[in-house]
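[Meeting: bench + compute handoff]

Bench side (C.D.) handed over the final construct sequence. Compute side (W.E.) agreed to return the predicted structure before the next meeting so the bench team could plan truncations. Sequence as handed over:
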Amino acid sequence: MRLPKVYFFVQPISKMGYQHNAIGMAQGMRELGITFGANTDYWREADGNILFKQDPALGPNDADILILTEQYLTYGDGKFPQAYFDAPGKKVFISTGDGMVMQKQMFKPIYKKFDLILTFIYEGIPYPKNFRPWAYGMTNHMISLSRPDLPKEDKICLNYRNSHSVRQRAKEWVFDKLDQRRIDTTRETFDWEPLEQSKDFSEYVVWQSAGRHNEAYLDRIGRSLATSAFGGLFHQTINLGLVHLEIYQLLRGECSFDRADEQHCKKNRIAYRPYLPHLPMGLLAHLGSLCCQKYGRQC
């Protein structure tokens, strides 16, 4: 089976437009030898080349698969591009936004138009047939800029910026009870203009990733004995909520419920066990399935 041609819809480079889902997917495709184009130029890499390029030779109508991520909507006007749905190729939507974004919206008519939706999938929730488990992973620049070789200090780095409810509860239940001299909550501020004009990728990447992956931040992670990097939101109808597996394991090891709380949960039929996430399939398994559907082959 020939490899598919893929077309991405992305927003152009800007200070706040970090589209990590698309970056990771495209870098993986490049390693696999899959040809892809895009509606605009986006993401300057360490070698100075642009990852996504607008190419007249590969437009949306030429692609077997068209990919749209939730960041295209977040950093744009919030609307799905009409050219995306007008093109004949298979439609893929990647949504790994916070909490239960897709779970709250998944039965809207718009999502029936997609052949494949890659998102967080949890046990115990009935999903439409076009939903499949997915999670964004490490991009090339994250791997190359990391510092695992640094000597370790007796510190725990709280590696997040936004205050999800799971993070707030972890702070109350776990981190506030530890020696605060061991907790690193440092946040950097930036002079954005020099970063935007810099020819040094380690500086420019801070601008185009909206303040992520700066040298001091990566240094702190590299020197920490542990890094707290989970996230998620509590679901209002269960005790532990719809949370990521990492935080559930952390809280299970550090916290317990008293008998009164246990009786309350039994009375209201509230389960302690969270909905556990399904692990994602490989990229080629998803794309191969779509191509087989298009060309009528058995896979």
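W.E. noted at the follow-up: The first strand starts at residue 6 and ends at 9. C.D. will use this when planning the next construct.
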